[in-house]
């Protein structure tokens, strides 16, 4: 899928947000500056967040809850995590039960079972502008994804 610019990325995030619910994991992969946080911001805005969501790079986990958003969300940036064991200390498994997890740099989790049913989105810049999205739809997502 091709997204022409930041606006298209935000709009895709908004469309995706309509399909998200607590317990979902969205794994956002791509190089620095690829658009992972922009896509997460589109999702968060559509879930009701007023203003621009900060990047969770420093905090690692940024929590949102009603009434700020319509569901509980944990926006996670694992860029600074060097070892999957470090991520275990974040309590992501506990959050996965009742939060939507938006995980940037999911590869830092290693072979975590948390990612087994995740909707994976790989974002890459396209020569000439825009972004290319490659989606990995787990079986649980097939009924929710538009044909």
Short description:
The chain has one domain (2-139): Rossmann fold (3-Layer(aba) Sandwich), CATH 3.40.50.
End-to-end C-alpha gap: 13 Å
CATH class: Alpha Beta
- Based on the structure given, which CATH architecture is correct? 3-Layer(aba) Sandwich
Determine Rg (CA atoms, Å). Answer: 14 Å
Give structural notes.
The structure is a single chain. With 147 residues, the chain is α/β, with parallel strands linked by helices. It has a single domain, classed as P-loop containing nucleotide triphosphate hydrolases (Rossmann fold). Helix content is 22%, strand content 23%. It contains four helices and seven strands; from the N terminus they run βαβαββααβββ. It has a seven-stranded mixed β-sheet with strand order 1-7-6-2-5-4-3. Strand 3 (61-64) and strand 4 (73-77) form a beta hairpin. Helix 1 (6-17) packs across helix 2 (36-46). The chain starts with a strand and ends in an 11-residue tail after the last strand. The model has no long low-confidence stretch (mean pLDDT 90). It comes from Sphingomonas changnyeongensis. Belongs to the TsaE family.
